[in-house]
Amino acid sequence: MLNFQIPVHGRESTGELVDKLEKIIKKKKFIVCLDEVDQLNDFDILYTLARNGFGLILASTHYHALMHLPSRIKSSLILTEIEFPAYKPGELFDILKDRVQFSFKPNSIKDELIKIISVMAEGDARVGLEILRRSGKKAEDRNLKKVSIEEIKQSAKEAKKFKLSYSTAKLNEHQKIIYEILGKKKRMASGLLYKEYCKLAKNPVVDRAYRNYMKRMVELGLVKVEGKGRWKVYELTT
């Protein structure tokens, strides 16, 4: 594993930073892994990396996250898309059971309870692991020899809040304003929501960008939508 640092001075552009990177590693071949690639502010970096021979692994929770890239970037990437669907309860059970064997004392949690956690996680391994971790910690704090359904129920509620905070952390400043509006109004037609957002934002985005923001919030599971086109109505999922 090669470890290096790129000196940064002031507010350098993406191009300047990539130039520095090229000088450091121009005689080597690298694979660059970018998680949550759809959150990039400047997608030109993908073009630059691809054109300079970098191998790219791009991950996103958003299916077809890069379908709207300019054609010059798409043609340089030559993407192959691999979809990883949400875990099924049986698959989550195997993951959690494996973690229990390494993290819990023998016979401290029944398989039936692990199966319940697998269903509660709703396909999200992080939520399942968080419920399991919190349940074990609560049982330990209460000097219990075994985890009970009560610890699991309490931990499930906390894990959902954990997932919510994780998702809201991905929102930009405009989306956070929209989220706060929906938190107060509960349910709003798309047009009215956009007008309210424009009143509160210092530099509101245009209608098209607003629609993309709403689509992203729906994909994150923070907002649900009913209707189509101008008749869309949004509300928070929790």
List keywords for this structure.
three-stranded antiparallel β-sheet, mainly alpha, globular, 238 residues, disordered N terminus, two-stranded parallel ribbon, Arc Repressor Mutant, subunit A, Helicase, Ruva Protein, domain 3, 10 helices, 3 domains
Explain what you see.
With 238 residues, the chain is mainly alpha-helical. It folds into 3 domains: 14-77, no CATH class; 89-167, Orthogonal Bundle (Helicase, Ruva Protein, domain 3), CATH 1.10.8; 173-236, Arc Repressor Mutant, subunit A. It has helices at 14-25, 44-51, 71-77, 89-103, 111-120, 125-141, 149-168, 173-185, 190-200, 207-219, and strands at 31-34, 55-58, 187-189, 223-226, 233-236. A 3-stranded antiparallel beta sheet has the order 3-5-4. Strand 1, helix 2 (44-51) and strand 2 (55-58) form a beta-alpha-beta unit. Helix 4 (89-103) crosses helix 5, helix 6 (125-141) packs across helix 7 and helix 8 crosses helix 9. The radius of gyration is 22 Å and the shape is globular. The chain starts with 13 loop residues before the first helix and ends with a strand.
Quickly describe the structure.
The chain has 3 domains: 14-77, no CATH class; 89-167, Orthogonal Bundle (Helicase, Ruva Protein, domain 3), CATH 1.10.8; 173-236, Orthogonal Bundle (Arc Repressor Mutant, subunit A). The chain is 53% helix and 8% strand. The protein contains 10 helices and 5 strands.
